[in-house]
Amino acid sequence: MSTFEAAAVAMIALLPGALYLFAVERETAVVRAGLADRVMRVAATAALFHLALAPLTAWAYLRVWESGRLTRPPVPWAWWWLPLPYVVGPLLAGFAVGSAFRRGRRWARIVNGHTPEPLAWDALFGHDSALWLRIRLRDTDGGTNGWILGVFARDARGRLDSRASAYPQPHDLYLCDTAAALPDGRFRRGVDGRPVLRNIGLLISWEEIAYIEVMWG
Q1: pTM of the model
Q2: In the predicted structure, residue 32 carries a pLDDT above the cut 70
Q3: Which of 20, 42, 50, 100 is the most buried (most CB within 10 A)?
């Protein structure tokens, strides 16, 4: 086996793990910080998928590769679908685990790890939580005496309106709505006792923020 063939085999062998990790990270927006950690996760996950698909791999090796049928046309149409489980299976599994992890499912946290986020920022904003944020700006002339009260939440249709950047991107925060604030940073409340929303979104960079107080909705 040539060096090129050996490299191709290694890439194909790791492909299920890489596809799974891609799907998980696409759903969770959590990117592992360490290269070594990512490589080990890809290799371990690929090994598990190959273990699960071992009967299909053995059959395909004996009936398709060793038999030489691939070099003797016509190749049966059914054989063109053989790579499908190695591609679609990891992608579907990754999307399922990533989606469940984002929704806080316990089994997904066991599979994906209890603390996969590289930074506290990602751990806080990487899940489907409804949060009230009391933000203190570095420039106290901004907002209301330096205070901004924001909403980090989903809309009624289950889509995440608010957004937070994820590692390794610079930290910024989009709040889908903000609340009226008093000069001391307290909520301005209406006659019903609830915070008065301004129906105004806000995009803000972490560089402009001194600290954030988090209140669970």
Answers
A1: 0.60
A2: no
A3: 20
